[in-house]
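In this section we walk through a basic example: taking a raw amino acid sequence and producing a predicted 3D structure, encoded as discrete structure tokens. The instruction is simple. Fold the sequence below.
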Amino acid sequence: MAETRITNIVEPEVFAPYIMERSLNQNRFFQAGVIQKNPQIPELIKGGGKIFSLPYWKDLTGATDIPSETNETTIYNIGADRMVARRQIREKAWGANDLSAAIAGDDPYAAIGDRVAGFWAKADENALINTLRGVIAGNVKDNASDLVVDISVSSGTDITSANKISAKKSIEAIMKMGDAFEEIVAVAVHSVVYQTLVENDLIDFIADSDGKLTIATYMGLRLIVSDNLPVITGTGIATKYHSYFFKSESVAYGQYDAGAIIPVEVARKPGIGGGTDILYTRKQYVLHPLGFTWAMASDTGITPTDADLIHEDSWNRVYDKKNTGVVAVISNG
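The resulting token sequence is shown next.
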């Protein structure tokens, strides 16, 4: 019986859209309605360049006018502006030894696809969380924390209930949205914060489409629990955790699976370990928080690093605060 190899199984032109679509569908922020696919973004990426303009219409403001029998009605302009979005490129490769269990499966194509899609779902989640951390850091620095409720302490050995998340402080954060508070639909918390919510009996469960009680909610919001959320170590036991509250479709997403960056390649290196199959995966995409613009001054690299995404100077707000899509609670649990 011939040996099953990656190079025999994987057809790159079929495998690339397969794993990328599956990875998005496995993304918990996409499932919760936080991320929206933007059909313009793939075309922007296709056109080249590191940054892209995402135009938007400004809100209409001002008082109404009084009609006149002798004077023309005043005509006002509808203002427009733009957000700057940044192309990101990431890659990951695996050798056959890492995928040996998948290759041995009943359906090796699907087994490999599930593993690779799962990896990229987590990678997208990390990119989003790093972006949100940078957005919140910029808000603290430039906007007097008007999208943040910080109840944490940075040092000490005694953390009290006042330093931990609560319904009261969550409501305070949500109300940063003003009269747009009802647009908040989801919240993401670290498992340590989730434990606090459970201990305070603040978690409910609703039935999914199959009638099973599997979807966790907090204050009626879709709940995402991720240990990839920011954990900032202080002194003593004063560790800080970020929790993010989201409006629906508050993050725009798009990827481009063609062009000069080849999304999937397979290769065999006969001189390594008696022969090694290698699966290369690459991704170029935009993951952009609506209401903010990419503003990194020293943006000279091929793609932003994680350190670039989380930096306080990388993001500026361009929307009025209640029209943005995220607010944060920073707590010690």
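Looking at the output, two observations stand out. Residues 6-58+78-331 form one domain. The radius of gyration is 23 Å. In the next section we compare this with other chains.
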